[in-house]
Amino acid sequence: MNTTNPSATTVVSRLQLLTQRQMQVCELVVEGLTNKEIGTRLGITVHTVKVHRAEVMRQMAVDSVAELVRAVMTPQQAAQAGTLIDVARPLRIIVVEDQALLRQLMTRALNQFGHHAVGVINGAELDAEWARSPADVLILDVELGTDENGFDITERYQAQHNCGVIVVSARGRVDDRIEGLSKGADGYLVKPVSFKELNAAVTNLGRRLRQT
To answer: Structurally, how many domains does the chain consist of?
Structure first.
């Protein structure tokens, strides 16, 4: 039995290695759905659900659903890993990530570093959140399950708004990184990315933005 709770960085690194279907199954398991309910929700057989569920637990290095829930949902302390440039004026960050668990973990970690982070799933939700309160920095996944991907959003927001953009994507080829940067991204991190690295990138970008 695994009795050691993994760190938040370890959890997010493992989650980022799951396939899209495995991530969907993981999210529904954490929500408390049964195998039959998951199969109905995703349109797959119970046997297929069991196969994905077993692989999720193997990759997440847990022995039970309870351990999986604890690993994903238990808040982790990250303050010792880095500090914010100005605690009196925390950076406002919008994380655009369509995978619910990754979005939740990234926003939670960024908030623990002292930033003010919220998460949305696509460009339409980003527009609504921006209208409510603009952000200093956007963190964008590339594949968002919509016609407008992260590169499109980067180009649109860099043309319309004064904000920093960091792309965080599993697409790590040189051509992908060049495309992201050519669209106006200030940084490009390849998944799996550690929270320390993400915080360092955000903090350094925020410092530069506030000096201009």
So the answer is: 2
Confidence grade of residue 24 (pLDDT, cut at 50, 70, 90): confident
| Integer Cα distance of 54 and 73 in angstroms | 19
Q: In the beta sheet, which residues pair with residue 174?
A: none
Look up the domain containing 27 and give its range.
8-73
Residue 90 near residue 96, CB atoms below 8 Å: no
The two structure tokens encoding residue 82: 């880095």
Alpha helices by DSSP H, listed for the chain, are 8-15, 20-31, 35-42, 46-59, 65-73, 100-112, 123-132, 150-160, 174-182, 195-211
pLDDT (tens digit per residue) in 108-117: 888 888 899 9
User: Same domain, yes or no, for 17 and 98?
Assistant: no
